[in-house]
Specification:
alpha+beta, about 30% helix, six-stranded mixed β-sheet, seven-stranded mixed β-sheet, single chain, about 25% strand
Amino acid sequence: MDSHKVIGKGVVRTDYLAKVTGQAVFTADIKLPGMLVAKVLRSPHAHARILNIDGSRALRVPGVKAVVSGFDGYGIKWGVFRYTQDHAMLPTDKVRYVGEDLAAVAAVDEETALEALDLIKVEYEPLSAVFDPVAAMVPGTILIHDEYPGNINVHVHIDVGDVESALRESFIVREDTFKAAGEAYAMMEPYAVVAHYNSGYLDLWMPNAGPHVRAKALSNLLKIPLNKVRVRHVFSGGAFGGRSEVAPGDFITALLSMKSGKPVKLILSREENAISTRQIHDMIATIKTGVKQDGTILAKEFKVIYDGGAYSSTGPIAASIPYYVYEEAYRLPNVKYDGYRIYTNKGIRGMYGCHGRAFLAGNEVQLDMIAKDLGIDPVEIRIRNGLTLGEKTATKSWITSGNLAEPIERAAKKSGWNKKRGKLPKNKGIGMGCVAIMTGFPMGFRSGSSCYVKLNDDGQATVVTGVVDNGQGNESMVVQIASEVLGIPMEDINLINADTEVTNLDPGAYSQAAAFVGGNAVKRACEDARRQILALASEKLGEAAESLDLQNKMVICLQNVEKKMPISWITREAFFRAKPITGVGSYIPKIDFEREWISKPFGQMAGTYSFGASVAEVEVDEETGKIVMPRFVTAHDCGKALNPMAVEGQMEGSVQQAGVAAITEGNLWNEGFLLNPDLLEYKVPLACDMPEIETIIVESGDPEGPFGAKEGGLTVRMNAYSAVACAVSNALDAQFSELPLTPDRILTMIEKKKGGDQ
């Protein structure tokens, strides 16, 4: 029986009132005295050498207070890892994509800033450009970065077992190639930054998923001591993986504030947001699979090419994650993976909450085709190959909670799989996608989180944590944990978070660590404070601490509920004794810190893993190629749903972000120019496109997670593409080859099938 008072209950989020009333302050809302407006000059060339930048005429415009270019910086380059530091936030050697930040102005108003921008003179020497990652790898092709031969930014190589021998022994071997267009993060809030440099201290506000990581990067880039760079808390209008790293806008706005002595605000237009901030990798995945006659996977061999754009960004991670979330789901005794992240003259690519759609959907559709050849149900072949508790992944990570079978079985049952698969009318299909997700992977000493909590003299509490909320409900989650442990109502708990000056290190909303890592730190800090309260209450009440509990702002004797005392009395007594009640807690996942994305991709990768399965139903109009998705069922193992409403919300949002997006979303390019940089031509799913969604929360009770919790919904984001691709392939009895599944591609699939080209 669940004895929790708050945990596991559907609670209203702590930030709801500010958001629904419009009181929430986003970066663009911030107003500081004397604040200037920033505008950025962007490259019109995909690839060109910079011969000269002259901002002198711009500086003479009345109202212009500062003009900056890369020559005003220190020449320091950004990269997530030391070996990928290739990105000068403002380049001085050459521009590498259309829209790259080149120079900027700060002026008293927008009109003046735009006038000055036109007066900055830049001399270029145009260079040949390359936009296709396969072409970029051809010997003799122009290099985008001279130090990277073949334009190969990153090569992730994993080789386990004996793939060649296993393929020879296989009953069936199938090889297919799948493609997917890159995507836009399409946050509703365009990127914005406010910077204020004053008396040697730099304050910054911007939507971001990792304040401490951002502060450290800017400290390095600007040569300011870390203790003088403060990234402050602000509401965020979405992230989805796209706001994890330092951005050129951060550097530019800070530099303008340092030069002008005034606070500066930069707000990107929707088009700027699309062309000059990080987007998602295009990819080409070649997949070879060998299986036994009973469907057991013997070998997998992968070659995946990622279009990385102009700079490294999260290169090694981005080129690894699609493979890892697959090996975390399925047993792969013999596997070889080669992931190549290639430089092209397109905008930078970064991480994504549903990264890897060509690879993941391709694997799942190919598995369906193999199951069909063997006469095995797709559900059966997935369960047979799914990892279970106590097993190890191919790269030697233990599975410490959950398994793939339970989400599969529950999703299949809820969707009526046995009654529908192979029995639906023509052009209707049903398909399943599966995946597992690492929770809390290595980020150096930033892999862990620390929290402290103080009890105030009125018995209320203040929690101080680096946990970030980009819309997931993380702030509400940590308050809920504190409420459960301290016996104080959520409304009586204050939260200070995501401010680098007052909070300790935290990974941020990254690596699926908010609940598992940050939540654990909060829980431990509150448990520390709880012990202090109970120890003092034991003395005052004359009862053993073990016989006392904290409930509804009271210390209660469990054997005699009439014997009780307000927590506020205890906290005041603690102040009288000059021993105020403050709790401290930290948590770092049990991972192998010697493991590295490229040099050593073996060892315990994550603190734990979550599992998920999704089932999509589709109807295809063979005359128009249009797809309708009437129903989507998804099961997700979150360990323990701290707030079931929040978990369900994440699952439902993931169906939109990856499931429906598999039909509509894709960036369109022409010679380095993004053709759909707005939300009219970039087809984000609308409410009318959404299916009926049924969510199934699976609780495996992770032994390390706070109250058993793991991450809360990402498996759905990673497998929804696959479910839709499998359903469409089932409806047409034809294997898809490219995402998104737009009408033209559907009609091509139909024509190929009619021509017998399968």
